[in-house]
Structures are given as C-alpha cells and as structure tokens.
Prior knowledge:
The chain has 294 residues and is mostly beta strands. Helix content is 5%, strand content 54%. The protein contains 3 helices and 23 strands. It has an 8-stranded antiparallel β-sheet with strand order 20-19-18-17-16-23-22-21. Strands 14-13-12-9-15 form a 5-stranded antiparallel β-sheet, with no helix packed on it. A 4-stranded antiparallel β-sheet has the order 1-8-3-6, with no helix packed on it.
Amino acid sequence: MSFASGTSGTTIQSRIEGSQIVDYILGARAGQVMTVDFAPTNPSAYFNVMRGTDPAAIFIGSTSGNSFSGALPADGDYRIRVYLMRSAARRNETADFTLNIGIGGAAPAHTASSDYADGLAGGPDWWSVAGVAGGDLLNVRSGPGTSNPVVGQLGNGDRVRNLGCRMNGQTKWCEIEMPGDQPLRGWAAGRYLREAATASTPNREASGMIPCALAVGQPMATCTFRVSRGSGGTASVWVALPSGGERYLDFREGRLVGSDPGMQVFQDRTGDLNIISINGTERYELPDAILFGG
C-alpha cells in the first residue's frame, strides 16, 4: 500500500464477509508515528497492527478499541489486519468499514508518544500489557532474557508497576511488578508494554471464593481465587489449588481463551454463570461479576 504523492495518509472504504481477513501492508521507519482510525458498520469487526510477518500483534482492536496511535519500533513493513470476531465470522456476517491510515514524522524524544516501553530510564509509573496474540499470554521471567525461567504470565490489559528497562542484545526488557495478595515480579519484553495512567480502575482487583471440584464425581467445594481485570470482560483469574500452586484462566470479552500450558479448557454459560471444565476433570464456576466487575 502506498500514499498519494504529497500526502502522508490514505482512507480506505471496503467490506469483509465471514472468515475473510484483509491485510494492508505499508513500509515505515523506526520512530515514525502511525495512526489508524477504524469505523465499521458491524461492532464485531476490528483491526490489529502487526510488524512484518510476526504473528504477535503490537495492537489488538478487540481489546484496545478502534483507534491506534504509536511510534513504530523498527524499520520495515507493518500490517493492518481487518477481521470479524470468530462468532460473527461463523454466522457469515458482513461489515462495511472506513479505515483512515497515516504515517507521520518521528515523535519528540521527550514524550512517551508511542505509549510503549521505548526508553530505558524513567518512563511511566505503570505499564499495561498490549499486543499479545489472541489466546496467548506474555511470559514474565526471572531475568531479562528468554533463557531465564518463567515466573508468571500476563494477558492483554493487565497493569504492572514499571521498575525500569534494559537491553539484552536487540531486545528491550522491563522489570515489572504486579501488586496484590500474591505479587508477581520479574522481567517482560518491552514491546508488549504500553503506558498506563494509573495502577487500576475501580473493582479491577478482587479475590474471594468460587465453587470448584478437582476430580470427576467429587462434590463441589470452594477454592480461593484472585482476579485482575482489564475492560469489557478481559480478566486474568488465578485459582488456588488445594494441592498447592494455582490454575490460571484467561478471559477476553467474557470468553475463556487460555489456561496453563497443555490444559484442555471448555466454557459453558448458564445465565450469568460461567462453568469452566479443564481436562474433563476439573470444574470451576465463575459468575460474570468476577470477569466484568460489579
């Protein structure tokens, strides 16, 4: 995709249908600011921004909205992907849309214009996790590098305290901390961290008890949980297991999208109750209030 001579942007009007995915590719330089505004006729239509052929998005519309503005981390091609959410695609729905795309000059060095972890010192007090691929989680490691053990995982929308960043080779790593009853502290790749204004929003952090059973035929008991919420049903839930450790449940728009590695998960809804089955043996019952707040 290219812009008309003398311009730094373009407007696209088009349509998608069902499982169709449309990618718009443009080249840009590190530090240039990309802006994207998306106006669909179907609320289940969204766009993501990706770097080159990397499947991990640096912006996910379904969790972050229909507008993006950020300084780009490197020279190269960037993809703007337009799609329908899976539920709408299965119904073969359509969406007309208008896509406004602009590429500007480099942002001033003294501002956090990209809202991402693009500096090694200073920066915001809090980060928000963003750009993790749908259904995936961001690994938090004991040190700044992939060779260090994973000490926890975060999902899009999780907010963590900024403890400073450093380079490891060509990758920027940031030390972060998620406060709470069982605080998480470690290192995460800076490309997935976006500036957050505050530590939390009302009702974002909570803990309590939920009904649970850990074996087939076992009577329902209660398990302690804690939850960290984003917006619109984005939530990370940790359930304490009687044998020790925790079971992790990741939700987007109220839908279960992931759990601990290797787990087979299933979600069934009855009214405002989410019944979660793991590996066909474990059962957890979570009301919508845990995921959405209230």
